[in-house]
Design a protein that fits this description.
108 residues, alpha+beta, four-stranded antiparallel β-sheet, 1 helix, 14% helix
């Protein structure tokens, strides 16, 4: 039996970028700040967080009610829009970004 290497293992792979980030990084550098995100009825939906540098995101509550399913997608749109508009991560805990659909409560 001859040991012939399989040519597919010798292909040269060139990495290419297939997409670019349209939002803030999800890996925080240092401590994070967060604010409670509530709906118009005052129900807690989750927390918006930021490291004030380059990372930000939304963490929903455990066991959300079925009518809360839209929240993650809507907050993702808000954060993506802020990123594209050049809003620094340090300004993401501004309640005006989430109004009138949501109320962001930030404690000092």
């Amino acid at each position: 039996m001859t040991d012939t290497p399989n040519p597919r293992f010798y292909d040269y792979v060139t990495p290419i970028t297939v997409s670019r980030s349209d939002s803030y990084d999800f890996k925080a550098v240092g401590p994070v700040r967060r604010g409670e995100l509530r709906d118009r009825d005052g129900r807690l939906l989750g927390h918006v967080w930021t490291d004030d540098r380059q990372a930000a995101g939304f963490t929903r509550i455990e066991n959300p009610e079925p009518d809360m399913a839209y929240v993650r997608g809507r907050i993702s749109q808000i954060l993506s829009g802020a990123y594209k508009a050049g809003v620094p991560a340090s300004q993401l805990l501004n309640p005006a970004l989430y109004a009138p659909d949501f109320e962001l409560r930030v404690t000092p």
